[in-house]
Structures are given as C-alpha cells and as structure tokens.
Design goal:
- By secondary structure, this protein is of the alpha+beta class.
- It has a single domain (16-110), classed as Alpha-Beta Plaits, CATH 3.30.70.
- It has helices at 32-48, 75-94; strands at 2-5, 8-10, 16-18, 20-28, 53-62, 65-72, 98-107, 111-114.
- The protein is globular.
Length: 116
C-alpha cells in the first residue's frame, strides 16, 4: 500500500532531516552511458566525504539526456556539495560533453512511497 511520509523525517540518531532535492537535466553530445560510467567511477568517493549527502539517482530520459536527482539533508549540505562537485567532477567529466543544463533546487514537501 502506498502511504505519505512526512517531509521531515528523523535520522537514525533522532535528529531531524529536511531533504533538499537538486535536479539537473543535462543534454549531452555523447551517449548517456559514457557520462554515467565516469560519474559512477568518480562520485562515490567524493560523496563519502560530504556531510549531509543522502543519495543520488541518475535517470536516462533520452539517448543523450540525463536527469540527475541529488538528495541532501539540508540547504547547507546541498550548497557544500555543489561547491565540491561543480568545479570538480561536473566541470571535468560532464561539462565538456554537455550541450545544455537546467537546474532546480527545492525542499521536499511530500514523499509518497511503499510502506506498511
């Protein structure tokens, strides 16, 4: 059964988490798979060192279009992540093969998913 979850959940330690979502729609000059291979190779070690990183989902929406959904514990964590990822991984591995990008940032106000 689907159910709605509160936008702000408690972390395992009991502290409140307000999820911030960063969505990047990127049009590429190469097949998505080329960029995804680089992202999957480079980003896990970087994410491991970023406080407040919750998760990332890569969605192939076309042969040369990738939507990246990043989830962060706070606006500050999202900004800190952008400061590291943008000039590093993005500018090195994605930007040279990108022909366009749309970026949106917002707070999760509702989360509906499977649960008991």
């Amino acid at each position: 059964m689907l159910r709605a979850f509160a936008a702000a959940d408690a972390a395992p330690g009991g502290e409140s988490i307000v999820h911030i979502v960063v969505v990047n729609r990127i049009t590429l000059s190469v097949p998505v798979e080329e960029v995804v291979a680089d992202i999957e190779r480079e980003l896990p070690a970087i994410f491991a060192g970023l406080e407040g990183f919750v998760g990332q989902t890569l969605v192939k929406t076309g042969p040369q279009e990738l939507v990246v959904v990043g989830r962060w514990a706070s606006p500050e964590a999202a900004a800190a992540g952008e400061a590291v990822i943008g000039p590093g991984v993005f500018n090195t591995w994605v930007a040279p093969r990108a022909t366009g990008q749309d970026r949106l940032v917002g707070e999760v106000v509702s989360d509906i998913g499977w649960g008991s």
